[in-house]
Each structure stands twice: as C-alpha cells, then as structure tokens.
Design goal:
Structural class: alpha+beta
CATH topology: Cytochrome p450
Number of domains: 1
Largest sheet: 5 strands, mixed
Number of helices: 17
Distance between the termini: 39 Å
CATH architecture: Orthogonal Bundle
Radius of gyration: 21 Å
CATH class: Mainly Alpha
C-alpha cells in the first residue's frame, strides 16, 4: 500500500513510506503507526487494495465526529454523489452483490427500518436469557481444553464460543457451524484477487442461507431466522435479499469482535501479569476489565467505510464530497488527549469512553452479547487456568491479514 500523504489542506507533510494496514506485520502492532499519524497528520490520505484512495481519521474527537455525524458521513456512497459502490467489483455475481443490502452499509431511513426489525432479538432481556447457555458452552470448552497440556486458545476457545452462540441464535445445526467461520472469513478479503478466489465460498454461504430462508418460511422455528421472516414494522418485512444480507451480517459481526477480543485480550493479560493477577484476585473487576481490553486491543481496528456528503474540513484536511473516510478506532482508543497513559493496560481505568464498539446510529447491535460472552469467558478461563502461559514467543505469533478487524490466527498456550 502506498501511504504517501496528500498535501491538500494540510500544513505539514508526513512521509510514511509503504504501510499496508491489512498486513500481518501492521496488525502485530499498529499503535505506533497511529501515534505518528495523530502527531504529524491526524487526517491522512492513503491508498489500499479494494478501497483505493481514502482519508484515515485518527484523533479521538474526529473519529467520534465521523461515527456520530450520520448526515456528513454516510455508509452508502450513492448518498454522497457516487454512482455505485466502488468496493464491489462489477464481475461479482448478482447474488453476492445482494449482500450490499445490509444494515451496516445503509443510511436512515432504511438503516433504521432494518435495525428495528432485528433489535428485539438483541434486547437486554433476550441476551440475559442466554447467560446460562453461554456459561455451559464456556465450561464445556474449558473442560475439553483441560485434557491437553498445550492448546491453541483461539481454535479451542475464543472462536467456538461466540460462533456457537450466534449459530444457535440463528438456528444453524451443530453439524454445520464449523463452516460459518470459513464463510465469514471469505467476506473479509483484502484484495480483488482474494475476493475473486473467495467467490465460490461466498456463493456457498448465500445458497445455504437461501435454503434456510425457504425452509423457515414453511416450517418456522424458535430461531432468529424464523423471527426475521416473521418480523414486521408497519406491515413492512424483509425481502429475501435483505434477509440473506442480514444473516450474513449477524453471522460475521456476531462472532468476529468477540473471538478477537478473547484472543487478543488473553495475550494482553499474559503480557501484563500484574493486571492478570489483579483480575484473578479481584473478580469484581471483570466489567471494567472487559472495557479496558476492548480499548487496549481494539478488536475492530477501523470503522467500516463512510463517505463525505459535502466538502468538509477535518483535522486540517479538506475532505471532498464523495471521498471515502475510514475512522481509525484503534487510534482513537490510544489517543493521549482522551486517555491518560493510553499505552498502559489498566483494568480499573475510569472513565473509559472507548469507541471499540463504535458510536452513533451504527453502534454495535450485539454489544451486550459481546460483553457478556467476554465477561464469562475471561472470568472462568483464569479461574480454571490461573497459571496460563504462552507456548511460544510473542514475536512468533501470527496475526490475521484482514481489513477492519484485528485478531490472531492462533494463540498457543500452556495450561
């Protein structure tokens, strides 16, 4: 990626060299890169595969502005004067392009309509009712881990926990759940070539959901897909394409944040044994610990794409109408203007106004579920394995090569 800075509207120039924000090397430790941007070019113009040129916003206040100002920064580029979504290649099959009809890439009033139809499934009451089931899943996973002296915490714990929960909510049979991470990973391609190579996987994902949709229409159950088919707001229902896009969105968002939080959060605690011991000795810290691990690890590194609806000055740069903007959540969460000693892990940090789960109208719909899963997971993990240790040096760990999210491929640990 060419990370040369545009000089338009800027008082200073910053030569960043070649920085690929999708690469494993960047994901390993992106925070010095963002610290330099905050200091030298808080709104920088970069280039990336698929995205092309875009503006990277790094100051906390500017990131919050981008996330909250849904009139100046929209999700659908057609609402900012563009003719089409440029992140979707023309050669994509129509059924794959139908995934664009998701609430995460929509603006009000359509966004509000789609979100309203699914909000009840993620209400505090519904999520609290899942607590016992989540605890049972965690205990079962930890029991299986205990049989081994060394294991991959991502594969054996961080991934299957949220994946099982969201698949059970959607009504996916246990025999098919292992497919969903592979399918969702195909939606996170970092280049047009990878997107092309992932097309058969995406088509398999879509065809599976289509079969579910048609089956639930005639034989509804107590699952979320059946509820979405029946859901209506002022006699409005989801179309087949909208439901497919909704299920894909929920499947990805329903586990990606949590698996990365548990994996990266465990690594952070193992690298900060004093904080790990604080949590073990004082379990009442668990809620604030989760907020701090969200801030410190930023499992969602950048917000999804937004587009300026008008020429707007931000951070000393002039962003033109139609320009693509990425709000760097990982940078905002380490902004020294908002967080004292931002590079320190402090499980009792208060206040902690992080934006790890977004802000504004697109604030994470499943935030209560993610927090509950993480609280139960961390509390029981370190209660069961107090002497948990890394099985290989930190420098040998492999990070996922992905846009938007940040997480480990694997986390080998000794129990």
């Amino acid at each position: 990626m060419d990370a040369q800075l545009s000089s338009e509207g800027l008082g200073r120039k910053c030569d960043l060299g070649d920085v690929d924000i999708f690469s494993r090397e960047h994901k390993r430790n992106p925070f010095p890169f963002y610290a330099r941007l905050r200091e030298e070019a808080p709104v920088a113009q970069l280039k990336a595969p698929i995205l092309g040129e875009f503006w990277m916003v790094t100051h906390y206040a500017d990131v919050v502005s981008c996330l909250k100002d849904a009139k100046s920064f929209v999700k659908d580029p057609r609402n900012a004067g563009e003719k089409r979504r440029r992140t979707a290649p023309r050669w994509l099959p129509p059924s794959v392009k139908a995934l664009e009809q998701n609430m995460g890439d929509s603006d009000d009033p359509n966004h509000r309509r789609l979100r309203t139809l699914v909000t009840e499934a993620f209400s505090r009451r519904r999520i609290e009712a899942l607590r016992e089931r989540i605890e049972a899943i965690v205990d079962e996973l930890l029991w299986d881990m205990a049989r081994e002296g060394e294991t991959d915490l991502v594969r054996q714990f961080a991934l299957p926990l949220p994946l099982t929960v969201i698949c059970e909510m959607l009504g996916i049979p246990a025999t098919d759940q292992h497919k969903f991470h592979k399918w969702s990973a195909a939606c996170l391609g970092t280049s047009k070539l990878k997107m092309f190579l992932s097309t058969p996987t995406l088509l398999a994902f879509i065809h599976y959901i289509k079969r579910m949709y048609r089956s639930r229409r005639t034989q509804p159950g107590g699952d979320l897909v059946s509820a979405l088919i029946e859901a209506r707001e002022d006699e409005d229902r989801l179309s087949e394409n909208e439901l497919i896009a909704m299920v894909v969105t929920l499947a990805i968002a329903g586990h990606e944040t949590t698996v990365n939080l548990i994996g990266s959060g465990t690594l952070a605690l193992l690298e900060h044994p004093d904080q790990k011991e604080r949590l073990i000795e004082n379990p009442s810290l668990i809620s604030s610990a989760i907020e701090e691990l969200l801030r410190f690890t930023s499992p969602v590194e950048t917000a999804t794409t937004r587009y300026a609806t008008q020429d707007i000055e931000l951070g000393g740069a002039l962003i033109r109408r139609g320009n693509l903007v990425l709000a760097a959540i990982a940078s905002a969460n380490r902004d020294e203007r908002t967080f004292p000693n931002p590079d320190d892990l402090d499980l009792s940090r208060d206040p902690n106004p992080h934006v790890a789960l977004g802000d504004g109208v697109h604030y994470c719909l499943g935030h209560q579920l993610a927090r509950m899963e993480a609280e139960i997971a961390f509390a029981r993990l370190f209660e069961r394995f107090r002497n948990l240790k890394l099985a290989k040096p930190v420098g040998d760990l492999v990070w996922r090569e992905t846009p938007i999210v940040r997480g480990l491929e694997a986390l080998p640990v000794k129990l």
